[in-house]
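Human: I would love a firmer grasp of how sequence relates to backbone shape in proteins. Could you go through the record with me and say what the backbone is doing? Here is the record:
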Amino acid sequence: MAGRQPVKDRPVSWIDLIEIGLDPEDRRPLFQQLHLALRDLIARRVVPAGTRLPATRILADRLGVSRTTVVAAYDQLQAEGVVAGRVGAGNIAGVGIAVTLGGPGAVFWMWVTALVGMSSSFFECTLAQV
């Protein structure tokens, strides 16, 4: 069986319009280069707050790197509070920036969204056991 072929019929995403240059000759690991590039795009608001980042498999395929590289970069962004994510929901960019710029109103709506997400996840897991 041949290797997995890239998906050709997927819709164009913002990531297809931005060049993320990873240099294999650079002393820094590829995941760190990707982490810094994505963090810079989010900080400069090229990727607006609330934007869903591409799935790890899609981004890895587009950049020609392993999925592990992309997962490590996303994990680092989550550890810094730049993105937020949950398995099955994806990673959302600019959470820390939204709180900083939005003030108390942003914090309130993030809590409301978190409570709705928590309760829907709870019921989803409960119903899965039935």
Summary: The CA atoms of residues 83 and 93 lie 5 Å apart. The first strand starts at residue 83 and ends at 86. Confidence is low (pLDDT under 50) at residues 1-5. The beta strands are 83-86, 90-93.
